[in-house]
Amino acid sequence: MSDGSSIEWTEATWNPTTGCDRVSAGCDHCYALTLAKRLKAMGSAKYQTDGDPRTSGPGFGVTTHAAALGEPFRWRQQRLVFVNSMSDLFHAKVPVEFIRRVFAVMEATPQHTYQVLTKRSRRIRRLASSLDWPTNLWLGVSVEDERVAYRIDDLREVPAAVRFLSCEPLLGPLPRLNLAGIGWVIVGGESGPHARPMAPEWASEIRDQCQQAGVAFFFKQWGGRTPKAGGRELDGRTWDEMPSRVVTAA
After folding, report:
1. Is the pTM value of this prediction over 0.90?
2. What is the DSSP letter of 181?
3. Per-residue pLDDT for 3 more than 70?
4. What domain of life does the native source organism fall in (predicted)?
5. Complete DSSP assignment for 74-141
């Protein structure tokens, strides 16, 4: 677990699984894939399984970590936790029984709020009825352009306490978002040496749709060579809106 995450919309990260495979354009310059290669070279135990070189890479093979399931019970202060910043909990190689164990940990630690983000929307839709959904779980899908907007419809079928969209890296306009049942939208540009640019009007258009629908809007970054290169202001201000966070004592 990592305290003080540099990700602006969370406070900490927790990785009971690691590794993934690229499935859409938003994955092309995956930061986690690059970081996993570095962590493998450093000898990090979690990153010694290689993935398929066509879609993954060194140290980025999908792996479950049962030992990590105990970590939330040891945190003394409540946290807003991004689950699997280095993986996708709903990857096909993550067994359903392990997903249930992760959910059980969330339910047993209601003082924390957990944020799960996936690109595997079809799998969550199929599994939704067979899982016990904790009330402190926010579930989101990545929507980088209109080609993957179907993920929003899948998300709407899932009984998560908060459903959210991560439009990062935003690679094209999303002028016709259906925000029914969605409680939060994050927008951000890509970062890294090969960052693809985000047009200002794409971000403003999503912000306007959120305002009209009464949905919390969070503008994470413009991106560029580094995450903070372009700053965080959109139309002269920062946008740090969050959905309501209900915390229950342990």
Report:
1. yes
2. T
3. no
4. Bacteria
5. G-SS--EEEE-TTB-TT-TTS-HHHHHHHHHHHHH-TTSEEEEEES-HHHHHHHGGGS---TTEEEEE
